[in-house]
UniProtKB/TrEMBL annotation:
Membrane-spanning segments: none
Job of this protein: Member of the two-component regulatory system HssS/HssR involved in intracellular heme homeostasis and tempering of staphylococcal virulence. Phosphorylated HssR binds to a direct repeat sequence within hrtAB promoter and activates the expression of hrtAB, an efflux pump, in response to extracellular heme, hemin, hemoglobin or blood.
Name assigned to this protein: Heme response regulator HssR
Modified residues (4-aspartylphosphate): D52
Domain Response regulatory: start-end pairs: 3-117
Primary location recorded for the protein, binned into one broad class: cytoplasm
PROSITE patterns associated with the record: OMPR_PHOB (PS51755), RESPONSE_REGULATORY (PS50110)
Gene Ontology CC terms: cytosol; protein-DNA complex
Biological processes annotated in GO: regulation of DNA-templated transcription
Entry superkingdom: Bacteria
Pfam families: Response_reg, Trans_reg_C
InterPro entries: CheY-like_superfamily (IPR011006), OmpR/PhoB-type_DNA-bd (IPR001867), Sig_transdc_resp-reg_receiver (IPR001789), WalR-like (IPR039420), WH-like_DNA-bd_sf (IPR036388)
Stretches assigned to the OmpR/PhoB-type domain: 125-222
Amino acid sequence: MIHILVVDDDKNLNQTVCTYLNDCGFEAKGVLSANEAYDEMYNNLYELIISDIMMPEIDGFEFAETVRQVNKQIPILFMSAKDDLPSKRKGFLVGIDDYMVKPVELAELEMRVRALLRRSNIEMERKLIVGNLEMDADGMTATINGEEIPVTTREFNILYKLLSYPKKTFTRAQLMDEFWGLDSGTSLRAVDVYVTKLRDKFSTCDGFEIKTVRGLGYKAVLL
């Protein structure tokens, strides 16, 4: 399932776009501001972003620029009432991949979404390749040089999360909240145990290392 984040403070339009995309077979989630979008992206994985430009507090330009600082690959499509060339130019300069002027034809929006996903090679599957490691989020499999490495669901999700946001530090509490949920009887030390297992299982990977950030948590660093 392809996950799409729709960022637009027009609640009715946001809901309409999400409903249409969901009917097309995607899983779309709508938020009304860039700050809400940051929270969503921090806690969940998305394959594509659709964003308005004119939003309160943080506009689409600043939002797209911030996203690009931490994720160079995710496709970003602007959907805006601004039809002037300078706005379009600024959007592409900050790193967006496509631009549609409101009001949009939903059928055309779907076509552009599929084209962006196709160019990103994630139309049919969610895969992450780092060096000799390949992770398939739909099959929940991890292979090194084509050989499958046995992992639990939690191990897979932690590693996939770290590698999806290289150089980003995740605290033990953040990882615990996301991957252990309401299991309050589990100590934060459980995160350390899982990271130790991941380091051992993926010690032959040549594309990344899991670094300890003293006093905070962990981050993946690409080699």
